[in-house]
Specification:
It is a single chain. The protein is an alpha+beta fold. The protein contains 3 helices and 3 strands; from the N terminus they run E-E-H-H-E-H. It has one domain (8-55, 74-89). It is elongated, with a radius of gyration of 17 Å.
């Protein structure tokens, strides 16, 4: 009996990404992407799916809430799940 293997670029996987610590409304995305998606590509996909810009908030004991960049969680993309097509998000 021979096994048929499918190349990873032909396999689509579905993942669910949920932001922890956010409960009202819950923020999550359901994404479909190629199984051979690299980590750097996944980073860009997540940035686009969550409508984020490419920055990181740093936290220190002396930091105040007003010093962190502000993001909006009231738009429709944050309140509803989204399915992203893999061809639109990979390079």
């Amino acid at each position: 009996m021979s096994q048929h293997t499918t190349p990873a670029h032909n396999v689509i996987v579905q993942i669910k990404v949920k932001l922890l610590g956010v409960s009202k409304p819950p923020v999550w995305r359901q994404l479909q992407l190629r199984a051979d998606t690299r980590l750097d590509q996944l980073h860009e996909i997540l940035q686009a799916a969550l409508d984020w810009e490419n920055y990181h908030i740093t936290c220190s004991p002396s930091a105040t809430r007003s010093s962190a960049p502000r993001t909006s969680t009231t738009n429709s993309r944050s309140a509803a799940p989204a399915t992203e097509a893999p061809a639109n998000r990979t390079r």
